[in-house]
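Interim report, section 4.2 (structural modelling).
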Amino acid sequence: MNWAGAVFGVSAAIALLGALGAVGFRSIFHNILSFALAMLGVAGVFLSLGSDFVAVVFVLVYVGAVAIAMVYAVMLSVPLDLPPRPRSRWKVLGAAGFAAVAAGAIWLVLRPALWIRPGGRPEVSAANIGVRFLQDYVLAFELISVLLVVAMMGAMVVARRSRVAGGR
Amino acid sequence: MLHGYLAFSTLLFGIGLYGLLQRRSLVAMLIAIELMIAAISVNVVALTTLAGRDATLGPVVVLIIVGVAAAETAIALSLFVAIHRESTSIDVESLSELKG
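Predicted structure of the assembly:
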């Protein structure tokens, strides 16, 4: 096994463990910490693919996302020392069954597909990505900028309006 | 090697889908959606790197996905604040005003 395979194995195990914790723990704090672990694992998977720029972006973006999610979890969730409400066992089993069937269906489509063989392993550098964004995908790049601005303004409007209208 | 990446992303997507269906807190459901988006990103980069002719395309698409996911998270968190202000809870089972 080469280095990329070893990095992929370790990172994938970390990511899957973190993902299981992110959906499995009852406390929202443990969910968020596990989510950070899962995102570190996913960044390692990107490293094993040779996409170091995407790995760095994932770490940076999701560290910020985790910090903000923690603030919102503290602000919005019920106090953590209250006993958790009981949940229906059928709902949990149904969710697990549906997710398993969906993942199985995706795997049945992905596995027998005939993928194009790569022509060597070309170098992916941040400079190449930047050139792509400013030449072939400049429209998508601009649309993302507009989308982010609109989303930010919309978020402010949505979070403000009920206070103005409802007077609470 | 490619099938290892595909299996990993399928598992991660399944875990995220399970969390989305099973959790009741809106913040936890948002975390599950982020897991599913990460699974899709791994899939895109693995396919363009290990089975394709244009390896730079994968990171470009993933950066666009991350941008859209950031916008989605901003809107979702502001909606959570608005919902919390109206009903003092973000438990999806207690948000049933629109139920017929």
